[in-house]
Design brief:
Number of domains: 2
Helix content: 25-40%
CATH topology of the largest domain: 60s Ribosomal Protein L30, Chain: A
Order of helices and strands: HHEEEHEHEE
Low-confidence stretches: none
CATH superfamily of the largest domain: RutC-like
Number of helices: 4
Strand content: 15-25%
CATH architecture of the largest domain: 2-Layer Sandwich
Shape: elongated
CATH class of the largest domain: Alpha Beta
Distance between the termini: 19 Å
Number of strands: 6
Structural class: alpha+beta
Strand order of the largest sheet: 1-2-3-6-4-5
Length: 165
């Protein structure tokens, strides 16, 4: 992205320093480049996963890379949190993540990195068991698991992912 911004700034400087005819041609080229960049970023949404509860999207597809927002255990059909137990909560989180991936024509096979945020590291084993059921060990993604003081809506687990087509 830095390269694209640098390129655009250089193009703008060239336009400013060029003749009127060259400037018109350069502006056309710049407009095409901006349009290309806008096409590179696509917002991914689905009604099969919870709606965002703030100023963000469920996922953004940039080129062939998908960046998902963190998913928590909202049941998208009822709008209620699934907090019966840590396994049910984690399963709902993973199902929400699955639906976001599917909306981008991807699956857990495409995931290359996940971030897991949990409120209590004592729940790690149970979370890990549910999480592991969605990946096969041969191509499981890179991952970090971090204990945090609080999560949105005071849930126990939040998971985000990066996937590549």
């Amino acid at each position: 992205m830095k390269q694209i911004i640098t390129y655009l700034l250089a193009t703008i400087l060239l336009i400013a320093c060029s003749s009127k005819k060259d400037r018109e041609t350069s502006i056309e080229v710049l407009n095409k480049e901006i349009l290309y960049i806008k096409k590179m970023k696509k917002i991914i949404t689905t009604v099969k996963a919870p709606e965002p509860i703030g100023p963000y999207n469920q996922a953004v597809l940039a080129g062939n890379t998908l960046y998902t927002s963190g998913q928590i255990a909202f049941n998208p059909e009822t709008g209620e949190l699934v907090l019966d137990n840590i396994q049910a909560e984690t399963r709902q989180v993973m199902e929400n993540l699955k639906q976001v991936l599917l909306a981008a024509d991807m699956t857990f096979e495409n995931v290359v990195k996940t971030s897991i945020f949990i409120s209590d590291m004592h729940n790690f084993s149970e979370i890990n068991t549910v999480y592991g059921a969605y990946f096969n060990n041969e191509n499981a993604p890179a991952r970090e698991t971090v204990e945090v003081a609080n999560l949105p809506k005071f849930v126990n687990v939040e998971i985000s992912a990066i996937a590549i087509k």
